[in-house]
Write a structure and sequence with these properties.
Length: 323
Amino acid sequence: PPAASLPIPDFRAGYQGEVSAPSRALLEVVYLCQNRQSWYRDYADRLGLERLEFVGSATRATAPVDAAREIRALLHFDVANRSALRTRSDVRRHLLEGFEELGGLTVTTSMVGNNTQRLLDADEFRGFALSDDLAPLICVNAADTINGQIFTIVHEIAHVWRGASGVSDGPIVHDTESELERWCNAVASETLVPARDLRQQLHRKLTEDTLTGTLDELANRYHCGTLVVLLQLKRIRALALSDFDAAYTSERARLNRLAAQAPPSSGGGNFYANQRYRVGGRLSRAIIADTAEGTTSIAEAMRLTSIKSLSTFDKFAKQMVGA
């Protein structure tokens, strides 16, 4: 069969620079999100909603530090505001809801639709952005770690700031040939770990013995992963390139050991709570409201939300209305 291609730019770096053809699962998630975006664009147009000024507001000449400052301000994510966020899940929710409050759409899922037998591969892609000045959408692969998802959220928001759609795979330290991906990585890192604040926190010289403890302290301060902190330490030249490469290898090994020691996930969870993220709060409420008014058919609403049972859709609608 002919090789399938993504309908949006493919910025995946692949393992050792070799990018595989997109899987059917990835293609279907992109198509589903495009359909949802198209529906919402028509919905927003009917309501006369204004175009979103932040979409495409940055250019290649925009300094990452400037874009990051604006993103932090609009998402209410300055370092001082993060103390109220107790867990990484709180951080993820804050960023997703913040983007939706700006007018964007979010999808956070680990599967195709609601099919638990068709799981997504975090090694294939971390997320993607569908830029649009009325209905920008970001999708995050929930099969990734929670720290990885946090970075991806901001990375895809940076894509929207540049007005550029595309699929990304990470890892964050990959020296990609794409100027856009390097820019989005820099914006995401600066948003999560502001360089100015980071310099103020470095009260002692970093050594091999003190680095791990310092990374954990800084990651807790910024509510992100230690690898993002490492990347910023490299950018502000607190670590030499040789030191960074060794530290990155060591830190990845440490994180892998911790992950192996962690108790297995119980899996599952509340379907309706998860469904809110798989479809996105803003989009879900819009579909439910338009269906209640009779403009969108129930069959179309169920297709857009990937729900096959009418009773399940009714219960989801009631929970979203009451949320």
